[in-house]
Design goal:
- By secondary structure, this protein is an alpha+beta fold.
- It has one domain (5-178): Alpha-Beta Complex (Peptide Deformylase).
- It has helices at residues 27-40, 132-145, 156-161, 163-170, and strands spanning 5-6, 45-47, 57-61, 76-97, 105-119, 125-131, 180-181.
- The strands form two sheets. It has a five-stranded antiparallel beta sheet with strand order 2-3-4-5-6, with helices on both faces.
- The longest helix has 14 residues, at 27-40.
- The radius of gyration is 16 Å and the shape is globular.
Length: 183
């Protein structure tokens, strides 16, 4: 089932998410719905707060990028109760967008590597290191469960320049091809 994506201004996007346990109701169905919602919106990552849930869960699937870069093939993961243990390496600038901020893209600086501990969809623990675009995607989605958006990582001047776009999102003035839940 395709869920509405919560847009900028929704309080759940600014709430630090809570950990869940294996007995979380209908977790398998939620994960399936999150992937379906993400695909419908042409996204490559989606965090639970973006579908209105303040829980520590996000999904990533880089397969859509594999045609141009085969190293992304097969990278489809569920991250439950993730914890970034460390971010290392050079700061790398890259343009980012977000399904909760449609029509807004900004250059964001992030560390090139992360070590993350998480549980997969079977609640099996993992401790892994990622670099490159994998690390960027993980950091972007991780920010969502920490009540942050990528626009929190841009300069004040850039934020001022997109203020009218942000205000339009809050007012519900948005044109999306996917189902959304404005404020």
């Amino acid at each position: 089932m395709i869920l509405p994506i919560y847009l900028y201004g929704q309080p759940v996007l600014r709430k630090v998410a809570k950990e869940i346990t294996p007995d979380y109701p209908k977790i398998e169905e939620l994960i399936t719905n999150m992937f379906e919602t993400m695909y419908n919106a042409d996204g490559i990552g989606l965090a639970a707060p973006q579908v209105g849930l303040d829980i520590r869960l996000f999904v990533i699937d880089l397969e859509p990028l594999a045609e141009d870069n085969p190293k992304y093939s097969g990278f489809k993961k569920v991250f439950i109760n993730p914890k970034i243990i460390e971010s290392t390496g050079e700061l790398v600038k890259m343009e980012e967008g977000c399904l909760s901020l449609p029509g807004i893209n900004e250059t964001v600086e992030r560390e090139e590597k992360v070590r993350i501990q998480y549980l997969d969809e079977n609640f099996t623990p993992h401790d892994e290191v990622y670099g490159d675009f994998f690390a960027r995607c993980i950091q972007h989605e991780y920010d969502h469960i920490e009540a942050k958006l990528f626009i929190d990582r841009i300069s004040g001047i850039r934020k001022q320049m997109i203020k009218s776009k942000l205000n339009n999102l809050i007012k519900g003035k948005v044109n999306c091809h996917y189902k959304v839940k404005p404020v």
